[in-house]
Write a structure and sequence with these properties.
Elements (H helix, E strand, L loop, with lengths): L3 E5 L10 H8 L5 E5 H4 L7 H8 L4 E7 L7 H10 L6 E3 L5 E3 L6 E7 L15 H4 L1 H9 L3 E2 L3 E3 L9 H16 L2
């Protein structure tokens, strides 16, 4: 039984420095169900019932993606909108209150890579990465998940990343994802 679901959304994985390596590391782990959404759904026609079925025995959900223009790739948003639908992941109960269903009690984590340097997200006129991705964090919170500290890597658009830094980050990510 797989305990951790990792959803990768990346529009150009072949050119990736870090996400491609994370995929290689995590996809061979025994207790991880690793899904490359672009590989599975290049036409954006998500198999909602299959995705919902795969979520049944999962204790942790991980979104892995590069940040594009202060957000996640469109296919991840499509997955959230399609799979986490009314009646499956939430309802409005008889009292008129929002009630989380299928994901309640599961853990949620993000692995986000950015081309921009970390300091690009600080300052009076800037949003932090967490603020940029708040819709994902808030959606998953509303659906009853417990947020695990996200993992961010910055500065990937500024030349080559040193192999040592890349290896260190991948090892750190692997340990964080495998924590339950």
């Amino acid at each position: 039984m797989k305990k951790i679901l990792v959803l990768l959304a990346h529009d150009d994985l072949e050119k990736s420095l870090v996400n491609k390596r994370i995929k290689e590391e995590l996809s061979c782990e025994e207790n991880i169900l690793y899904k490359d959404l672009n590989e599975l759904y290049p036409d954006y026609n998500i198999d909602v019932k299959k995705e919902q079925e795969d979520l049944k025995d999962i204790s942790k959900i991980v979104f892995q993606f590069p940040m594009y223009w202060y957000s996640a790739p469109a296919l991840l948003k499509r997955w959230v909108d399609s799979v986490l639908e009314y009646g499956y992941s939430y309802v409005i109960n008889d009292k008129g209150d929002f009630e989380a269903l299928a994901l309640k009690g599961k853990k949620f984590q993000t692995l986000v890579s950015m081309g921009a340097k970390e300091e690009s997200f600080y300052g009076e006129d800037r949003l932090s990465v967490k603020e940029c991705l708040n819709s994902y964090f808030y959606t998953m919170e509303m659906l009853g998940t417990k947020k695990i500290e996200p993992s961010f890597i910055y500065g990937l658009g500024y030349g080559d990343i040193e192999e040592e830094r890349l290896q260190s980050y991948i090892q750190e990510v692997k340990e964080k994802v495998l924590e339950n």
